[in-house]
């Protein structure tokens, strides 16, 4: 998915474009990435990043890559809505995971004066370049994404092979996002969820589109192949459990949207506990007074 980091003020190494103009740059990450969740953490990453780069590059080289952009186009518009909700003009913005510009097409110079776009950026880039009081706005797949596909594959594999392995990349739980953003150094956090449901002719069309999006499974413990009988059984289970009257099957994509701000002294802070001058218990009295006046 994509993340847009809105930066306040100049002074970054990214400022090599002429002022007052839109600038689009794609950085190609090179070299091998160690399978660590974060530098020095010692935790193993669940994803094979080199495989994910290959999947993305393969998808970009297809004859009609735009036919698989419908989901990112929709999420890009919803991320842009959250940018417009902030009543501020940002001199500089960084779009991490930009793809073909899913967020940029909705922005204007009244909101973002200069935009840089980056794809497959390396760890910690966003927070390092954020200015004080800069805001990070991101979107990613949530834990309920493709639950229909995952359930169907698991049931079919249990029936045909006596066990199952993950065939969809793992997703973050919404309860972990606030903790992760806090560890990254952001405060005044906001997290909300949304669901997008897309109807397909069948399970195989879903898997074809996921491949076209570059979103095939890239977890380290992935199973290299699925037997034909298992795939056919999964498609039948999918149709039986989730199929519509018109023969189509739904695929649910849960999207997490997150907003975090880099600390600055002038930012608003929560009031101290016990400093309130009005009790929530008074709300009932206020409602009663309003009712009498009516």
Automatic annotation (TrEMBL):
UniProt record, GO biological process: methylation; mitochondrial respiratory chain complex I assembly
GO MF: methyltransferase activity
SUPFAM superfamilies from the UniProt entry: S-adenosyl-L-methionine-dependent methyltransferases
Gene Ontology CC: one annotated term: mitochondrion
Keywords noted in UniProt: Methyltransferase, Transferase
Superkingdom: Eukaryota
Family as reported in the entry's similarity comment: Belongs to the methyltransferase superfamily.
Protein name: NADH:ubiquinone oxidoreductase complex assembly factor 5
Organism: Chelonoidis abingdonii
Gene that specifies this protein: NDUFAF5
């Amino acid at each position: 998915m994509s993340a847009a980091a809105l930066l306040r003020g100049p002074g970054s190494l990214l400022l090599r474009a002429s002022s007052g103009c839109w600038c689009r740059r794609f950085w190609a990450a090179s070299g091998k990435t160690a399978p660590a969740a974060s530098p020095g953490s010692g935790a193993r990453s669940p994803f094979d990043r080199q495989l994910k780069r290959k999947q993305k590059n393969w998808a970009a080289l297809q004859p009609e890559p735009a036919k698989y952009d419908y989901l990112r186009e929709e999420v890009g518009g919803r991320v842009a809505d959250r940018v417009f909700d902030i009543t501020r003009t940002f001199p500089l913005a960084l779009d991490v995971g930009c793809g073909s510009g899913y967020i940029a097409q909705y922005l204007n110079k009244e909101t973002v004066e200069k935009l840089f776009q980056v794809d497959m950026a390396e760890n910690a880039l966003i927070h390092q370049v954020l200015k004080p009081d800069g805001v990070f706005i991101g979107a990613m797949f949530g834990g309920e994404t493709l639950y229909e596909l995952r359930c169907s594959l698991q049931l079919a594999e249990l029936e045909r092979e006596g066990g199952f392995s993950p065939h969809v990349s793992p997703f973050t739980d919404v309860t972990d996002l606030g903790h992760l953003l806090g560890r990254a150094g952001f405060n005044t956090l906001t997290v909300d969820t949304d669901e997008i449901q897309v109807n397909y002719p069948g399970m195989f069309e879903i898997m074809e589109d996921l491949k076209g999006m570059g979103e095939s499974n890239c977890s380290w413990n992935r199973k290299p192949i699925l037997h034909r009988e298992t795939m056919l059984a999964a498609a039948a289970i999918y149709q039986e459990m989730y199929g519509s009257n018109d023969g189509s099957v739904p695929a649910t994509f849960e999207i997490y949207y997150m907003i975090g701000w880099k600390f600055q002294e002038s930012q608003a802070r929560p009031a101290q506990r016990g400093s309130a001058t009005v009790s929530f218990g008074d709300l009932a009295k206020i409602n009663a007074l309003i009712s009498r006046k009516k």
